[in-house]
Every structure is written in structure tokens, then in C-alpha cells.
Amino acid sequence: MKNKFINLLFQEPGFSLKLSAVILLVIFSLFLTKAKVLKRAEIIRLTQDQAKAGELKIQIPALEERLKALEVKTEATVVLKPQVNLVLKGVLTLDGESAAIINNDIYQKGDTVSGLIITAITANTVTLQDPITAEQTKIQLPE
What we know:
With about 140 residues, the chain is of the alpha+beta class. The chain folds into two domains: about 1-80; about 90-140, no CATH class. It contains two helices and seven strands. The strands form two sheets. The chain has a four-stranded antiparallel β-sheet, with no helix packed on it. The protein has a three-stranded antiparallel β-sheet with strand order 1-2-3, with no helix packed on it. A hairpin with a 2-residue loop joins strand 4 and strand 5 (about 115-120). The protein is rod-shaped, with a radius of gyration of 43 Å. The model has no long low-confidence stretch (mean pLDDT about 80).
């Protein structure tokens, strides 16, 4: 068989040219097949990217609405925050527990006065903290 192929290759006119053409066609076919596979993978990736972009595009209006709602809520909190003049009128201590008389009402540590939390009561001062900004304010007994 080997000799027959060699004889055809060298003795048959045009056989080597035909064989070269077949080999080139096979190589070209393999190249095209690989290119199709690569192109298909690229198309799949682009399709997935477009799907993700579409999902994000759908989510954007909902996120914008949530942001607007948070902005309105923050503005409302600032606008609705009461501006009350707090006057410390006295401090009571009994068995190590302190209470403060503020604007004619009695409060203890942890209570809320006009939106502020009482964090400490001493003999002549009360420390209040804003729960939103953590800003602290002290009021003291008049002299």
C-alpha cells in the first residue's frame, strides 16, 4: 500500500497537486470550524451581557424611586424635628437613681424628650443626644 501511494504521488501527473489541494481544504475547513465556534461563543457572551444590561435597565427606575423616597423622608425628618426650648428645673436622686425635671415633666436616663435621648443625669446637668446626628446637648440648672 505504501509503495502504491508513493508511485501515485510521483508517477501520476497532477496527483501531488490534488493531494496538496485536499490538504489545504482540510486545513481551511478546520480553521473555519474553529472560527465558527469562537464566533458562537462571542455571540453567546454578548447575548448574556445584553440580558444583564436589560435587567439593570429595568432596575434603575425602581432604584431612583427608592432614592427619591429616602430623600423625601430625610427632608421630612429635618422639617418635622421639633424646636422646643428645654429647661432643666431640677434633679432628683433616690437610691442611686437620678431623675430630671425638664419643662415640668420627670424623665430618667434613656427617656426621650422632644426627640432627644437622655444619656446622662448629674447633680446639675442633663446630657441629651440626637438619635439621627448623634449630636450631644447639655442643659443645666439655672443659677
